[in-house]
Amino acid sequence: MRTKSKEFTVSIHDCDLSEYSLSFGYDNSTQTYKVVAFYVEDKGSRNPKTMVKVFSLGDNSWRDLQCFPLIPLYWFSDKCYHNGVHLNGTINWLAHHDYKSVDDHYVILSLDLSTETYTQLLLPLGFDNKDDWPKIVLLADRLCFCHDFEETHFVMWQMKDFGVQDSWIQLFKISYENHLESAYLLPLYLSENTLLLANERDLKTSIYSCIDNKVEKTAIRNNIGWLYAMDYVESLVPTH
């Protein structure tokens, strides 16, 4: 069976697109793919501003969007997983609620591609907000949140019902005694009983089994730049 594909090029005439971070998603209401481009102005100031643009493949045009109401974590790091997680017609980023405050806390900034409006999603109540670099990833078609716990465990939560804070459940709490390192873990794949993890520092991968609570090194070739890998799906559009 032949599959259809389309290659396209986007550019912004009045600015350098290479300065932007890009996210890609699908607008369910118009059945249109969209590219979201954003960057932070005045990064050295105490009052940085974001610029956000959206490109619709429906009319092949760019439009300005409302600026981010919060500062995404990508501003503080060049790690690719901060460029947004696409799920259910939304793109989601971890963000600082108020990065200038000593009592700052993290939230998930969610952009609805249909309405092109923002919503703030709260993190699990059990998160103590002490981790400098928590992560959100898409695993098994659900939004997952990962963080360090008191420098002793790697913890991963799953949002069973997207957008509902009470639906967060804790999936794993893995001790670092299992030869893992706190700030460097990146979940790659989740099945019913196992979790595939990459170590961002040494680029090695491990498999955690929740059945026997053990971590084993995998046979996957090392030195893969996992941070720069992108999720692959055959199509963002349901086939039924």
Automatic annotation (TrEMBL):
Q: Which residues cross the membrane?
A: none
InterPro entries per record: F-box-assoc_dom_typ1 (IPR006527), F-box-assoc_interact_dom (IPR017451), SCF_F-box_component (IPR050796)
Q: Please give the superkingdom of this protein's source.
A: Eukaryota
Boundaries of every F-box associated beta-propeller type domain copy: 18-238
User: What Pfam families does the record tag this protein with?
Assistant: FBA_1 (PF07734)
NCBIfam families linked: F_box_assoc_1 (TIGR01640)
Protein name (Swiss-Prot/TrEMBL) = F-box associated beta-propeller type 1 domain-containing protein
Q: Which organism is it from?
A: Trifolium subterraneum (Subterranean clover)
